[in-house]
Write a structure and sequence with these properties.
Keywords: Hydrolase, tRNA processing. This protein is an alpha+beta fold and 123 residues long. The protein is built from 4 helices and 5 strands. It has a domain of 82 residues: Ribonuclease P, Pop5 subunit (Alpha-Beta Plaits), CATH 3.30.70.3250. Helix 1 packs across helix 2.
């Protein structure tokens, strides 16, 4: 006999591709940026929302400042707002630009390709 989960379905996740533009030198490291994002999210939406959203950085290029953050689907607009509110990370002034929201990491990573790159439809 197969056991059923009583709690319901596993929450779906969305992946938001973003780019960090640093005004003071190189972009911050992954840990510095994740700490700044969590702090802004906590201040804007509270501890309960932060716990339910479970934001985490699944991909981050420290040289370019590009990355992907995973979040529970119901909180995707919260993470977009929090990304826009991040102004300091690792002691540097930064501006975070959300590029694309996707249902898969692979789809989010496509946002980093150049517009004429293969697989993007030449758009």
């Amino acid at each position: 006999m197969r056991l059923r989960r009583l709690a319901g379905r596993r929450p779906r996740r969305r992946y938001v591709a973003f780019e960090v533009l640093s005004l003071d030198g190189p972009p911050p490291g992954k840990g510095e940026f994740e700490e700044a994002l969590r702090g802004v999210y906590l201040k804007a939406f509270g501890a309960e929302s932060l716990a339910l959203a479970r934001p985490r950085i699944v991909y981050y290029e420290e040289e370019s400042g590009r990355g992907v953050v995973a979040v529970v689907r119901d909180y995707r607009y919260h993470i977009l707002a929090a990304l826009g509110l991040v102004r300091m990370a690792g002691g540097r002034r930064v501006l975070v630009v959300p590029l694309r929201t996707s249902g898969t990491v692979k789809g989010a990573l496509r946002a980093f390709r150049s517009p004429g790159a293969p697989g993007r439809g030449g758009v």
